[in-house]
Write a structure and sequence with these properties.
Layout (H helix, E strand, L loop, with lengths): L2 H8 L7 H28 L1 H4 L6 H32 L2 H19 L13 H29 L7 H4 L1 H4 L1 H19 L2 H6 L4 H17 L6 H8 L7 H8 L1 H10 L1 H19 L4 H10 L17 H29 L1 H16 L2 H5 L2 H20 L2 H7 L6 H18 L1 H11 L5 H19 L15
Helix pairs in contact: 2-4, 2-5, 2-6, 2-9, 2-11, 4-5, 4-6, 4-22, 5-6, 5-11, 6-22, 9-17, 14-22, 14-24, 15-17, 15-20, 15-22, 15-23, 15-24, 17-18, 17-20, 18-20, 18-24, 23-24
């Protein structure tokens, strides 16, 4: 049966309107990624001082990144838990649960005591780890559900375009999170920001979660999953079925996402660290003295010396290109195929890795060029993923399979990327050239995974069950 015929059959069932699908997938992931990026920004700007006060310089930053990585360890577990219910109970209820989990965890981070408060030296970082774990658990189920909501409601020959709707949540969430941090930084003194201002972005997520829940509760189940229910093909144990029948797509999907993850977290977390780090030991020592901390030259790695607010603005400009080219990627993947589009983009990411040192060394123009090019490539590689990963799997294990691939890749890519990047930065005596080589190496692995994977553009998305 053709894709057009299967889509026509699916449309006979009660369906969500196009506007509702766009808003629910876009708003939900925007909120989820906002919550996630609020932590990512705070991991660089705030948490090294407030939750690891006994560590110094890069050591404190690495401690903060270690907690940042806890969420990525939790994400595969979240993909199993939410994937099970998404494939067994339905997409709608699972998406509501993931949003609530993320929202509550993020709000509670804004309420945590800090390690410099009496009696909280141990418990403050420990509670931060717990909340960060909950964030990862939620995001482990969010992305796949949002991608399925969009693509399983898509008209024929528009899955890749609809699949970009949830992907846009990443740049939108990033801009909202960092934009709010910027507003607070401009309007609060440094002491006020470090004392209580940093809490506001976390607490503000409660309002956004309420809006997201309102939109998602109005959804009906996707036509593709409803067909599985009506035909009695719902998997009793989606995880077991996915590993039995779809283990090859899970491995392929994991490595297809690898370069995307590494690129994104280098472009955001690492560049913010490198861009705002002091240019010299003298400058770093002066900053440490001003903040009342000792300076350890053994942990020092030179950076670009930008002011925090200036570099955040530069990042936000770059992320605008991320959003634009995420939308561009959908029509390209629909016209030329997912595999061909991603092969070309991955090859470009490989080349881009070799430009880190010369572009970062090119002053403001070079740094801005690096951010714009990097985020443009990020949009082009991230945009098609909302379609290509779910298309690798049959309907009755699609939530579980795509979620596991997406989130296991987050461990191999995003969880370790900031940590590896900082280590390579130090090993190269303040130069980013090894960080670029790291990115190019990951692009090779993704290229191989794409090369050995079939094109998924014309799969029968509604009737495809294991």
């Amino acid at each position: 049966m053709s894709t057009n015929t299967s889509s026509a059959e699916a449309e006979k069932a009660p369906a969500n309107s196009r506007g509702r699908v766009i808003v629910a997938s876009l708003v939900g992931t925007s909120i989820e990624f906002y919550d996630f990026y609020v932590y990512a920004t705070a991991a660089v700007l705030v948490f090294p001082v407030l939750f690891f006060p006994n560590a110094e310089g890069v050591t404190a930053l690495l401690s903060s990144f270690a907690v940042f990585g806890v969420a990525f360890i939790a994400r595969p577990l979240g993909s199993i838990v939410f994937g099970h219910f998404g494939d067994k109970v339905g997409r709608k209820g699972t998406l509501v649960a993931s949003l609530l989990t993320m929202g509550i965890a993020t709000f509670l981070i804004g309420c945590l005591p800090t390690a410099n408060m009496d009696g909280w030296t141990f418990w403050a970082p420990a509670l931060l780890v717990v909340m960060r774990f909950a964030q990862g658990l939620a995001l482990g189920g969010e992305w796949s559900g949002a991608a399925l909501l969009a693509t399983e409601n898509a008209p024929a020959n528009k899955r890749a375009i609809y699949g970009t709707f949830p992907q846009l949540g990443a740049p939108i969430g990033f801009i909202l999170a960092n934009g709010l941090f910027l507003i607070l930084s401009f309007n609060l003194a440094e002491e006020q920001f470090m004392s209580w201002g940093w809490r506001i972005p976390f607490l503000a997520s409660a309002v956004m979660v309420i809006i997201g829940l309102y939109v998602r509760l109005k959804l009906v189940e996707t036509p593709a999953f409803q067909k599985v229910v009506d035909s009695g093909e719902v998997s009793k144990l989606p995880l077991a079925a996915a590993f039995k029948f779809s283990w090859r797509p899970m491995i392929a999907g994991t490595f297809i996402m690898l370069a995307t993850y590494v690129l994104f977290y280098l472009m955001t977390t690492f560049t913010l660290s490198y861009g705002t780090a002091a240019k010299s030991e003298e400058e770093a020592a002066a900053k440490a003295e001003a903040s009342g901390k000792a300076f350890d030259p053994d942990t020092f790695a030179a950076g670009l010396g930008y002011a925090r607010n200036d570099f955040l603005i530069m990042l936000i400009v770059g992320v605008v290109f991320f959003g634009i080219f995420t939308m561009v990627a959908g029509p390209l993947a629909e016209k030329y195929g997912r595999r061909k589009t991603l092969l070309w983009v991955t090859a470009a990411i490989f080349v881009f890795g070799f430009t880190f040192d010369p572009l970062f060394g090119g002053g403001f123009v070079g740094t801005m060029a690096l951010l714009i090019i990097g985020f443009t490539l990020m949009g082009l590689t991230f945009g098609p993923m909302g379609a290509v990963l779910p298309e690798l799997f049959p309907t009755n294990v699609r939530y579980t399979g795509s979620a596991i691939a997406y989130n296991v890749s987050s461990i191999l890519g995003a969880a370790v990327a900031p940590f590896i990047a900082v280590a390579l930065w130090q090993a190269a005596d303040g130069s980013p050239w090894l960080v670029g080589i790291y990115l190019s190496s990951m692009a090779i692995l993704t290229f191989i995974a794409l090369w050995v994977t079939r094109e998924t553009k014309d799969v029968d998305y509604v009737n495809h069950s294991s």
